[in-house]
Amino acid sequence: MNVAKRYQVCNLVIQSNILLPELAETSQPPDYHFELLPHGEHFAGDHRWFNHWIFRDEVRLSFAFLDAHYLLRFPDHGDFLVSRAGPEIKCRPLPGVSESTVRHLLLDCVIPLILSRREPLVLHASAILAGSGAIAFIGASGQGKSTLAASHGQLGYPLISDDYLVLRNLAGAWFAIPSYPGVRLMPKSTDGIFDSPPPTAEVASYTTKRRISDLEVLPFTETPSKMTSLYVLDDDDGDAPPKHPSIEPVSRRETFMKLVSSSFNLDITDKELLTRQFATLNQLVAALPCFRLRYAREFGILPAVSRAIAIHQKGITADAHRAHGSPQDGR
Amino acid sequence: MPIALTDHLRMADEILSTRMDKETVILNLKTGMYHGLDPVGTRFFEVLKSTGDLGEVHRQLLAEFDVSPERLEADLLALSEDMLAKGILVAVKPQS
After folding, report:
1. Residue A322 and residue A88: Cα distance in Å, rounded?
2. Which residues of chain B are within 8 Å of residue A285 when distances are taken between CB atoms?
C-alpha cells in the first residue's frame, strides 16, 4: 500500500508512505518524510559505529554515521536511515519482517530518538496524571512501568505516555507532553489487570506484547500536564520486595544518573546536545523529587500500589503548600 | 601508568561537573559517558581541582577523615587511576 498521510506525535509531523493508525492525523507541514522501502539486506557503506544499546547481553540497536545519515540498525529486524539535517527517514526491513514490527520500531524507538534532538528531554518512562499532577515511572525494560501505568488507567487515572515521555520546561515548571494513546502489555499483565479482555492489537511479530489503545478501556489525556514527581521502579539492592508498597526518597545524584540511563539520545557524540542535556537534567533534578517505589510484582497488589502513590502524592502536595504558602496565607 | 602522591593531575578538557548535595555528577563530553562520585570522591575531586597536587589532597583529606595514611593513599591512587582511565583527569608533566 502506498499512501502519503501526515501524522503528529508531540511536536513532530511525519508524512508516511504507510498508514500509522496509532498516531493522530494532521494537515500540518511535515518535519520528516518516512518511507518504508522493500525488504532487503542491511545498508552497505562506510559505517562509523558510535553507540550500541545492549540489553541482556544482546545488541538490540546500533548507531552509526553513514554519509549524511544516522544509521539505526536493529540486528534482527532491519535498518533505519535518518538524515542528519532532516527531513528523511527510510526503513529497509530484513526479509520476513512485518509492517507492524516496522511501525513499532518507528513509533517507539526511532521517533523518540529523533525527538531527543528537538526536545529538552525524552525519557524511557511511563506517565500518568495523578490528582496533583503528572507523575512518571522510570526504570529499565521489564520493571513494570507499562503495567503500573495501565493499572492506574484502569482505576481512572488518565495516561500521558506509555514508553517514552517528552518533558518540557514551560514558564519555569516541567510539563509532561503526551505521546500517543497506547500501552503495550504482555498477555499475563492484561489478564492480571483487566476483569474482561480488552481489545488489543499486535505490537510486533517478535513479541507477545499487545497494544491497548481503546480510550473506553484506558483514558488518555491529550494536554500537557505539570510534573510533580518521578518514581524509580528499579530494585538495585537485590533484596526481596517488601510485603507492602514502600516509597523512599532517592538522592539527587542517583536521580540524575537514573535519568541519564533513561534518556533517549540519538547522537552521543554531539557535544552541544550533550551539554544541553546535562543542563536540562541539572534543572530537572533540582525541580522534581524522585522516589524509589518498591513492591512485590504481583498483580493483586497493584491497587494497593496505586493507593500508596495517591497518599504519597497528597503528602507531597501538602508539603509544597506549606513550603510556598497556601493562597489563604497572609490574609 | 602507575601514579604516586608526588604526581600532579588536573581535570581534562571538555568535562562538565555538577555538585548534588554532597555528591557529584560528571559528564565527559569526549566519550559521552556520565560518572558519579560519592561524598568522599566529591571531596577528593574538589581539593584536586583547587590544588592539582595529589600530595596536598592526601594531606587535606587525612585531616578531614578518620582513616590511616596508608589506606587513604591507596584509595586516592585507585580513584585517580580510575578517573585517568575514564579521561576525567589528565596527568600534568612537571616543569623542568
Report:
1. 51
2. 20
Query: Tens digits of per-residue pLDDT, A148-178?
Result: 999 999 999 999 999 899 999 999 899 999 9
Q: What are the two backbone dihedrals, phi and then psi, of residue B11, each rounded to the nearest 5 degrees?
A: -70, 135
Distances in whole angstroms, Cα of residue A132 to Cα of each of A158, A175, A259, A320:
12, 13, 22, 11
Contact list, B36 vs chain A (CB under 8 Å): 253-254, 256-257
B93 Cβ contact list (under 8 Å, min separation 6): none
Q: Alpha-carbon distance B57 to B62, whole Å?
A: 8
Closest-CA residue of chain B to A269: B32
Model pLDDT for residues A189-226, shown as the tens digit of each residue: 999 999 999 999 999 988 999 999 888 899 999 999 99
Identify the DSSP state of A157.
P
Quickly tell me which residue has 539520545 as its cell.
A265
Q: Are the C-beta atoms of A111 and A11 separated by less than 8 Å?
A: no
Give, as one character, the DSSP assignment of residue B88. Answer: S
Residues of chain A with C-beta less than 8 angstroms from the C-beta of B29: 271, 274-275
Complex-level ipTM: 0.86
| Longest distance between any two alpha carbons in chain B, whole Å | 40
Q: Where are the beta strands (DSSP E) in B1-96?
A: 8-11, 15-20, 23-28, 33-37, 89-92
